[in-house]
Design goal:
The chain is built from two helices and seven strands, in the order H-H-E-E-E-E-E-E-E. It is an alpha+beta fold.
Amino acid sequence: MRRTTAAALSLAATTALALTASGCDTVTETAGTIASSATAAVASAAEQKMNEVKDGVNATGDVSAGPTSTDGDRTVAEITATNPKDANADYTVMVTFRDADGNFLDSVVLSIDGVAPGKSKTGTARSNRTLSGDPEAEIAQALRH
C-alpha cells in the first residue's frame, strides 16, 4: 500500500511540475483530459454495477425519467418504474444525465425495489457531482429482476 501511495504522490508531483513548466494552455488541456477521464470512469462504474445484476430482463420500457431539478449542489430526477407483470419486481436502473447538446455529463445507478404487479413506484436519481446548465435525465438501461 505504501508503494502505491508513494508512486501516486510521485506521479502527482511530476505532473504538477510539468504543468507549471509548460504554461497555461497545457494546464487547460490537461484539466479537460482529467475531467474526461473522470467522466469515463463514472460511466464505467455504472455499467459494471448493472452487469452485477443476475437474472435481470430488459425493462427499459417499464421505466421513465421525470424532469431534472437541483437538490443542494446535485442534479436529481424522479424515476418511475411501472410493473406490467403479475408478481412483485425489483428494478435496477442506469440513469444518464446529458446537457442540452446531448453530451454525457454523469451516470448513476439506482434500485427501485418491491414494485407491486400493475403498480408504479418511484426513486430519485442523484448526480455524483455538480452539473452545470440544464441537464436532462434519460434511462440508459433498466433491468427487472
